[in-house]
Amino acid sequence: MTATGSAAEADASGRDRMDALRRRLGGFAFGGDYNPEQWDSAVWREDVDLMRRAGVNLVTVGVFAWAALEPEPGVFTFEWMDEVLDLLHSAGISVDLATPTMAPPAWLSQNFPETLPMMADGETFGFGNRLHYDPSSPVYRERAAIITRALAERYSGHPALAMWHISNEYGPTAYNEQSSVAFRAWLQRRYGSLEALNDAWYTRFWSQTYTDWAQVDVPAVPRSWMNPARQLDFKRFVSDALLECFVAERDIVREYRDDIPVVTNFMRFYRNADYWKWAREEDAVALDIYPDPGDEDSWVSAALNFDLMRSLKGEPWVLMEQAASAVSQWKVNNVKRPGMMRAGSYQAIAHGSDTVLYFQWRASRGGHERFHSAMLPHSGTASRTWGEVEALGNELPLIKDALGSSAPADVAVLFDWDAWWALTETHGLPRNDFDYPGLVTDHYRPLLEAHHAVDFVSFDSDLSRYRMLVIPNAYLVPDRFVEALTRYVEGGGVVVCSFFSGVVDETNQVRQPAYPGGLRTLIGGYIDEYLPARAGETFEVQFTGAADDGAAGAVTANWWQDSVHVESATVRAVYASGLLQGRPAMLENTVGEGRVVYLGTRLEPAALTRVLLGEAQRSGIRALVTDAPPTVEATLREADGVSFLFLLNHSESHAAEVRLPFEGHDLLTGASVTDAVTLGPLGVAVVRAVTP
Description:
Rossmann fold; 18 helices; 6-stranded parallel β-sheet; TIM Barrel; Immunoglobulin-like; alpha/beta; single chain; 20% strand; 11-stranded mixed β-sheet; 3 domains; globular
């Protein structure tokens, strides 16, 4: 978004650009990263011929090519890129052209060593790694702008160009002096004065009061314990500093052409960038994700990340990178079993992606990722992986009618980077081993496995469209969210909130006068003490008969207990053993037309599932399908009054029968379906509803 444009105008322009890309491709984008600079030009024509054979219609070019494009400062060698783009265009393959600024060349590190990032321990992060740059470095930003402008001047009018890909997987955190200079400027913009900074950081504790801005620097490796507000603001600053780099390059390419999408690629559960904030600056959200084929549960985390990506803008998104088979970065790199890559690709589409893209097209002969799988493996077209890639590329046109469709949901789960950073990046909590993504997954999984559609929301999202909101352990909540949440519940919304939520404000200061200060009125009680469990300690929880829990008997809880005192709420469950025996473990409070259910402990998975699904049922929320096993995933996409039901069986060994909510046609087989479909192991069906 430009400085003069509104957020709504930027969103509309982004949708227009993505609509233009969809029209140009005529179906789902299929392809991936293409790195021709790694190969002799004699290979390029074979590449293009095989791309056409596999149904490739979009490739990303230039991500790691800075040294090949600018071998010396100001000396550009574009001729090879000219040939590649011309060759791709002649074959009808569109190009997502990348700025190569995530991989600075050796001459930049040698001539300008100040661009190399210093780590928190004071050591320099040297050349030969990846992401070897300080995002706050004026020199780095200047050289990044030069190569970006040179690319935009040369290729903005090229007929192959369909999308701009700015840099790649933004990530470095630097502790250089220039980072401290930028951090001070960021703090001055945020707080305005040293007095306000000292108040926000509560610097009266441990005599940390600042009397001059020059005394403020970035937090290096802590030798004891660090000011938690300072650490939280540094996480915010890092995200914003990286975003400034993206916006600077985005604005350059837009000077030359304003009708095609501009994106960069996000990563799974990535802590250094607030993706809610970043998404507002992009035409579409794009994701790189590599679920572990050796983990039978990895599809759950993938589904969560896919739903999160769709929710960031509330629009179809871009699967920018996945693996055709194995990766190379883990201790053991398992291959994807036959059918797993296809199922994972359809899973992304099922959750709103309009693309299936890979890293990378042709497997590299050398370098760190030489054993990372590719669409075209080292063994060539005789390989199993190639056969599956080719088959999928030629199958995707069968579902092109689902392109651009939306995915509605009645349930939302809160996922906010401020909540994440405050809970896990600062110290001094009752326990310091919180796993925020893990906790969110614990609350998401029951809804996914029960075949509910789920969106994610931030502290700034519109809550009014949802019947039910789940808040997993939101230790930090800003005032604006408390106000929005209150309006939501008063208007009839249902909230399920887990322990240790609403405790501190945006500055990481404990809300007064009692826990959980921000949510006390909403939960209808207060907490006088937090009791983390001892190692191996468990305690029984007995439901009391409220709602639909009374006949369930005692369940097990662990890890945490709130010492809850009831004010306006009713007690849904009590501790049946342990130090808090007989005390409330779960509350329900009516607020206006809605209600808040508060969990003061970590229930065993089956009990948490029962609570979440029970509240969804009470709220009138229906699952997309019924009587399907939890390893079957169901999602719905809609466009122009037409529904597309995606069904995926993640079991590698068992078939599954799924009863259908409507009659339709399976787009992948062409068969008419009425009551049910049978999915083989790793099977997929895409059912288009018969329009009355």
